[in-house]
Amino acid sequence: MTGRILVLGGGFAGLWSALAAARARATFGADLEIVLVNDTPWHSIRVRNYEADLSDTRVALDDVLGPVGVRHLQGRVTGIDVESRSVAYEADGSAQNIGYDRLVFALGSRLARPPIPGLAEHGFDVDTHDAAIRLNEHIARLGADASTVLVVGGGLTGIETAAEMPGKLRAAGVATPRVILADHAPRIGSDMGAEAMPVIEEALAALGVETRGGVSVVAVDATGATLAGGERIEAATVVWCAGMRAHPLTSAFPLERDRLGRLPVNPTLKIRGLRAEFAAGDVA
Ligand SMILES: Cc1cc2nc3c(=O)[nH]c(=O)nc-3n(C[C@H](O)[C@H](O)[C@H](O)COP(=O)(O)OP(=O)(O)OC[C@H]3O[C@@H](n4cnc5c(N)ncnc54)[C@H](O)[C@@H]3O)c2cc1C
């Protein structure tokens, strides 16, 4: 094969796609240009965003891509035209275009933020590196007053965030941390299956994390959250970890997406019905 492989996104899926393409190019001696577009200079090890020390959770993309000859463009992808095989992006304040022979679409996902009153203003999250830094700075600023944290969302991200929280609060100066992990579902960790749930519950209990199932948050403010039915949970910090949506640019492809906005792909990750476009990671 000759031509250009264009990878959109430098997360796990995009970075591995670019590196695998570079390995295949070296193995088979193909005449290929490989280009990766990402909106920041970083590959963020997003799965570690719940940690207290985030200093080594980002890797400079140039350090990884440069040595294997993958070109890295820093820019924000704004559109994809499957007909003309071109991608629009913004870089240095100007609109640019780049064509492709093969496309790997890997722009990832975003936390789903429902229109709950107060959530946008007062809620915290660990969806991105910047958001995770903001949460850690907020807790450090509150110090001993950070005593209660409500984590909403009992999936992997919420469980990890809640599990790390007692340690973070103690480090901030809270003598007796209170961490509550709440979810719509009757039990925490229900997505992970019946065998996992008791293990998760035991581990959270050992850490002193309270769990609440069947909870629906209807409002968030600076001092806590209000639940359906009127119950109030006072908490200096509310961390939203409930649900994800695939990147909105999945709408650039002429296909029906699933309830999380993901594209249908075949077993080689080629987007169903298309010839030159692949999707990987949280968008697929
Ligand atoms: C705290 C936390 C813990 C998690 N724990 C686990 C776990 O234990 N196990 C697990 O399997 N999953 C876990 N996940 C989910 C996991 O992080 C995702 O499944 C994974 O990051 C998906 O990789 P991706 O490459 O598809 O997308 P992403 O990692 O989201 O990468 C997308 C990339 O695209 C870039 N980008 C986005 N929009 C644009 C644009 N318009 N233009 C250019 N670039 C753009 C982003 O900057 C990013 O570099 C966790 C997530 C979080 C937040």
Task: Write a structural description.
The protein is an alpha/beta fold. The chain folds into 2 domains: 149 residues, 3-Layer(bba) Sandwich (FAD/NAD(P)-binding domain), CATH 3.50.50.60; 128 residues, FAD/NAD(P)-binding domain. 24% of the residues lie in helices and 31% in strands. The strands form 6 sheets. The chain has a 5-stranded parallel β-sheet with strand order 5-2-1-9-20. It has a 5-stranded parallel β-sheet with strand order 11-18-12-13-14. The protein has a 3-stranded antiparallel β-sheet with strand order 6-7-8, with no helix packed on it. Helix 5 links the parallel strand 12 and strand 13. Helix 4 packs parallel to helix 5. The longest helix has 17 residues. The mean pLDDT is 96. It binds flavin-adenine dinucleotide (FAD). The site of flavin-adenine dinucleotide has 29 residues, from helix 1, strand 2, strand 6 and helix 5.
Summarize the SSE layout with pairings.
Elements: E1 2-8, H1 12-28, E2 31-38, E3 42-44, E4 58-60, H2 61-65, E5 71-74, E6 76-81, E7 86-91, E8 94-99, E9 102-105, E10 109-111, H3 119-122, E11 123-124, H4 129-142, E12 148-152, H5 156-172, E13 178-182, H6 196-206, E14 209-212, E15 217-221, E16 224-227, E17 232-234, E18 237-240, E19 244-246, E20 277-279
Parallel strand pairs: 1-2, 1-9, 2-5, 9-20, 11-18, 12-13, 12-18, 13-14
Antiparallel strand pairs: 3-4, 6-7, 7-8, 10-19, 15-16, 16-17
The structure holds flavin-adenine dinucleotide (FAD).
